[in-house]
Design brief:
The protein has about 200 residues and is mainly alpha-helical. Helix content is about 50%, strand content about 0%.
């Protein structure tokens, strides 16, 4: 560790694949690449990219305790890994449950009354961490079932503003959303314990 008495300690950089590597873990053990199947068609390609990004977000949180998950590592940002879990639970819920399935399910964390509620409520409480993971996994499971049950990617959803996006558009948006936040997760995790890699 490096640092001084008037600065926060900065962790040494490391990864699980060994010195000289810039990957998160050995590719042969990485569940994102383990399937090894050739992707055929639009649906399979979109779903595989989304699966890999969901796994990446989950993997970036592995081995951390509630305090580390709740740590806001880049002041003055309110973002934390736990906040990302909560945020993505609501993103999944919004697009698949509310827009595509037309459910009137309320948001889990987001609030019009409290700016950054999903982030500010991400505190170092083991029960809150368990609940956030449960919520995220429930929303991912709902989304996966919705997509599997949809006859094609042209199925339309409906947004409050009157737009009606197709399922393919929602899947592309979700890939973009996870890609963006997995980049945040890279930096958050590295600042917490120094672990680097894709």
């Amino acid at each position: 560790m490096t640092g001084s008495k008037d600065r926060e300690t900065v962790p040494e950089r490391w990864n699980a694949a060994g010195p000289g590597s810039d990957v998160w873990m050995d590719a042969a053990q990485d569940p994102r690449f383990g399937a090894g199947t050739k992707l055929e068609g639009e649906r399979a390609t979109l779903l595989d990219y989304l699966r890999a990004y969901r796994l990446t977000m989950e993997m970036k949180c592995v081995g951390l305790d509630p305090a580390q998950l709740a740590r806001r590592s880049v002041p003055p940002s309110t973002m934390s890994l736990l906040g990302l879990i909560r945020h993505m639970a609501d993103v999944e819920r919004h697009w698949f449950r509310r827009v595509m399935a037309q459910s009137d399910a309320p948001f889990l964390y987001w609030s019009e009354d409290v700016p950054d509620a999903e982030w500010l409520g991400a505190v170092a409480d083991p029960a809150l961490v368990d609940e956030a993971w449960r919520a995220w996994r429930d929303e991912v499971a709902f989304a996966e079932k919705f997509v599997a049950d949809s006859p094609d990617l042209g199925v339309k959803g409906f947004e409050p503003d009157g737009l009606s996006p197709a399922l393919r558009s929602v899947l592309v948006h979700m890939i973009e959303e996870y890609a963006r936040h997995c980049g945040h997760a890279d930096l958050l995790r590295e600042r917490i314990d120094g672990r680097v890699g894709q």
